[in-house]
Amino acid sequence: MKVIIQRVSKACVSVDNTLISSINGGLLLLLGICNEDSFKDIEWLSKKILNMRIFNDKDKIMNKSLLDINGEIIVISQFTLMGSTKKGNRPSYIKAAKPDVAIPLYEQFISHLEKEFGKKIGTGIFGADMKVELINDGPVTISLNSLNKE
Length: 150
Fold this sequence. Notes:
The protein is built from 3 helices and 8 strands, in the order βββαββαβαββ. Strands 1, 2, 3, 6, 7 and 8 form a 6-stranded mixed sheet that branches. It is 24% helix and 37% strand. By secondary structure, it is an alpha/beta fold. A hairpin with a 2-residue loop joins β1 (2-15) and β2. It has helices spanning 39-51, 66-69, 99-117; strands at 2-15, 18-23, 26-32, 55-56, 62-64, 72-77, 122-123, 130-145. α1 (39-51) crosses α3.
């Protein structure tokens, strides 16, 4: 699994001009899933995401986690994170899991993250043409890959 973490002061996702989820401060997560991913990837990413110290303390040093600030989360599925640009100019998405694999893992990721977080998180709609708006705070953007634990 690959996750792009964006620290946001605001974020929302809409489908067909209908607001699906919105938050006021926290993390917007873009999640890419490949065929090799499993629940172990979900556990590792959830722990990293919730405990990553990327929020400012009183001295404006990134010393606080999402749990420390009682922030919010939106998770958006994004198969394009699995794109390969090794050959040619059109990305190949062959490594991206098909919906029959990706949807259950996406739902497990959300469920496990909510359990560990202790509160409901926002989502998009898997496979929909979503419009995502955000105000990146910092900006702070971090990439995690469970395959190589980066």
